Amino acid sequence: MSEITINSKSKLFGTMPNGDAVYSYELKNNNGIEVKIINYGATITSLKIPLKSGIMIDVVLGLDSLEDYIKSYEIGGSPYFGATVGRYSGRINKGLFTINNNVYQLEKNLNSHSLHGGNIGFSQRNWEVVKITEGKNPSISLYYFSPNNESGFPGDLKVELNYTLTENNELSIEYLATTSEDTIVNMTNHSYFNLEGPAETVANQDLYINSKTLLETNADNVPTGVLLNVVNSPNDFSSTKKCPDKIDTSFVLNKENKIAASLYSEKNNLKMLVFTDQPSVHIFVGGKYDDQLTGKEKMKYQSNSGICFETQNFPDAPNHPHFPNSVLKKDETYLQKTVYKFEIH
């Protein structure tokens, strides 16, 4: 049962091929920030910020229709615009991992590896909206049940996802999951941010990452298990630098500072701060947007039209004992929280 107040802004977004309806829900705080979320993939489709100039700017990339979102997963190098990624975000080498001496084979959907949960991950599932609250700090809660052996993962997994738009201009994302048997879990949000809007690139925006170490990867971008020091290298963003035109890298976060990362636009005097309880943030710029795809409002996205801050556990952690634990036991609860805070100067 949905608990939706009378002022809740929701509308039909489209219909799935199987006939299921997909709705768009809007949260708006008292400062005029608006975020729209569809239950297909628990996806953020829009995040509008009012600038001091009075202009409203949409700071995330997305698509205009449900048909476009569905089609985006059928092309090579799907962009996962704004989607909730799971069960396991990032790559798992050969799609293989072991729990309790049992070897599990996941779907291979990127060369010979598993990426972002397999062929049909959480990003392509219809989530159930279980609660919407309005007034101060409006929020929406969504639920998804992932049955045992879905995409090859063991255990029935029950997932609850909460989006909250606070009066401090924070978009808070909280994940909770429980399982019927030991499994692996690693969820994230795959929004592409651009503080100058999709008509611009992120090339002139300032990037900070609270990290001095990254994960070394092989030719398929799968972690080798080696941690590399990035101090004074091109991948050292502990001092602010302009966004790179291309990057697809997991950074180990320094826990001594609460801020995981930030993005700043001098043009709009707008800053986004990223906070998380996760051990890493995967930074991605350089998507190949197929000619079949046109962005919101008929915008043609470029490879550096947006930057992702995928807060998460390490990719391929199940296969590296010295990486942070990725196993969720059947008597435990997976909890994760990430916050994107906007400062309008």
Task: Quickly list its features.
mainly beta, single chain, 43% strand, 345 residues, 1 helix, 6-stranded antiparallel sheet, 9-stranded antiparallel sheet
Distance between the termini: 41 Å
Q: Which strand-content bin applies to the residues?
A: 35-45%
Total E-strand runs = 28
Low-confidence stretches: 1-7
Indicate the percent of residues in helices: under 10%
Short description:
2% of the residues lie in helices and 43% in strands.
Describe the structure.
With 345 residues, this protein is mainly β. 2% of the residues lie in helices and 43% in strands. The chain contains one helix and 28 strands. The strands form seven sheets. The protein has a nine-stranded antiparallel beta sheet with strand order 11-12-13-14-28-24-23-18-21, with no helix packed on it. β8 and β9 form a beta hairpin.
How would you summarize the topology of this molecule?
Layout: E1 9-15, E2 21-28, E3 34-38, E4 43-50, E5 56-58, H1 66-72, E6 84-85, E7 91-92, E8 96-99, E9 102-105, E10 114-115, E11 128-133, E12 139-146, E13 157-165, E14 170-179, E15 183-184, E16 188-189, E17 192-193, E18 206-209, E19 213-217, E20 223-229, E21 241-242, E22 247-252, E23 259-265, E24 270-276, E25 280-285, E26 307-312, E27 327-328, E28 334-344
Antiparallel strand pairs: 1-2, 2-3, 3-4, 4-5, 6-16, 7-10, 8-9, 11-12, 12-13, 13-14, 14-28, 15-27, 17-26, 18-21, 18-23, 19-20, 19-22, 22-25, 23-24, 24-28, 25-26
